Structure prediction request, 438 residues.
Amino acid sequence: MTSPEHSPEPLAAPPWQAPGSGGTRITRVRTILTAPENITLVVVKIETSDPGLYGLGCATFTQRARAVAEAVDSYLAPQLIGRDPADVTDIAGSLFLSSYWRSGPVLNNALSGVDMALWDLKGKQAGLPVWQLLGGRCRSAVPVYGHASGRDAAEVEDGVRAFAEKGYRYVRCQVAVPGALTYGVSAAPGAPDRGPVGSGTGSTRAALVPDAWDPDSYLRVVPELFAHLRDQLGESVHLLHDVHERLNPTQAVRLAKALEPFGLFFLEDLLAPEDLGWLPTVRAQAATPLAIGELFTNPAEYVPLVRDRLIDFVRCHISAIGGLTPAWRLANAAELFGIRTAWHGPGDVSPVGHAANLALDLAAPNFGIQEQHVFSETAAEVFPGCPQVRDGHLWPSDTPGLGVDLDEDLAAKYPPVEPLVRDAWTRTRLPDGTVQRP
Prediction:
């Protein structure tokens, strides 16, 4: 589905662009909303004065998709018409400041769609993949982690073994808490794969009895899970776990300490952004590696965490922080402090966004791990060039730009779905009825 067409008057060109100068210019900017996997994706398309030359970027904030589309179409497009798409840095900076009030997921995703599309255009103009523009590859392929979940430890073990047989060396493990709502765990084996947006698991958020989130039971069950996995699997597979910010600070300290003997590759989002002042306490009491930042919307939020080495992995949704440009700068800054990358990669990142993740992963010396989402055949038809996973790795192509295209006719056959404003997952509650961070 394509948003209404806008024909804005171009703004004044920057001082180094002489009026009427030649060269490639941006002629049209628009958003395309599509849901080939029943998750609304937002893609920005920037067209130019060169016939057939355009760029695509991911602006997906699926819970507020139409707000992002309006931000692009009504507020960013008028500032882009007539600009030279080569000026990625200037455009990123000027658009970021143009609203005066800065950051936030709606505007940042809108900015990200533009930013990625400009990088895609630059690669196509140069005849090079974006990862080459970032300095070339540091690795042949990018290791990813899969998602194993189950009703009990034995089912999770089966899932980890299945991934290991396919060549995966990293697996995120989530287990049901009996009688409670549990993040990232299927309702039952063989249940429809209706995936919770944002989990990256491809499983439903419902547990066996979706009544409440019970942190006390969770704090008992999760260490038991990893004790079982290490006993049965040894050290042959790197194990990860996502708390999803559902613990208070004291509970978070307890869990990090309890999991330390099991050598996790990382523990994800142990604390909510509002509680990050507790990170020094966690760090002082446990050596469990931490990945933080899925909900960050401003790279500056990472400054104290990186400066004080309070985390081990920057873990952000690159479209939520404004796109490939700020993500690359963040990766470079983190490298100076020995901190690695682990970009967010769920189903509510379009294939274009996953290609941007891949470009960063290939070029960053401090790459850590990449979350995977295996797109369906339908999604791969809508987005030709969709990144491919084989043997537990994402494999790059030499296609210029980000390497992913969009079939707009097919995309129109999968219109946006109802936004998740009434999703039970965002209404998670404690046993006493208190609203809990999701």
In short: The radius of gyration is 22 Å. Residues 118 and 282 are 40 Å apart (CA to CA). Residues 2-8, 187-209 have pLDDT under 50 and may be disordered.
